[in-house]
Amino acid sequence: MTNCTSCKGQYDETDARAAAAHTEPVHCNARRTCRCQGKPGCYPCGDSFCLCSSH
Ligand SMILES: [Zn+2]
Ligand SMILES: [Zn+2]
Ligand SMILES: [Zn+2]
Question: pTM of the full predicted structure?
Answer without folding.
Answer: 0.77
